Task: structure prediction
Amino acid sequence: PPYMPAVRDALEIDCARILPNIAGFVGGDTVGCMTATRFDQKEELTLLIDIGTNGEMVLGDKHRRVACSTAAGPAFEGAKISCGMRGAPGAVDHVTVRDGKLAYTVIGGGEPKGLCGSGLLDLVAALLETGVIDESGRMEEDFTLCPNVKLTQKDVREVQLAKAAIRAGIELTCALLTDEHIAVRV
Result:
């Protein structure tokens, strides 16, 4: 919830055309990541996270894997963020603290138009480091990075919700993987 899959039954699809979903909202992009990283051959316990529209994750090794999907992507893709945008020309993609001041880079150079996911995370981290945001996520007032890019209290709360969703997913996969009574195999 709140999104229900259109198809709930297993489908057999020629993977030469499209990578299959694992289940629900754990999609073909995660299958591609698992294939590219040879996840089925991992000796050590490994966590793969794909933060996109959904925060998809897989935890496991060559013997056993569990997967889940969380509602983390909207904030990192710019949805519900006052100056949010996808990672495209004009997006602030990195923010750092240099000599106590913030510096940033923009995809494609030029004037910033908004914040993409990496820029959003960097900005929140930088403001936490400089004390503009306290450990609870509270800001005294909105923060302006440059004329077209600001961060609001609501934006910080959206990042906190996304982070909480990812953490909940990690904790769930850890619990499922270590619970001997649950036989979940991907």
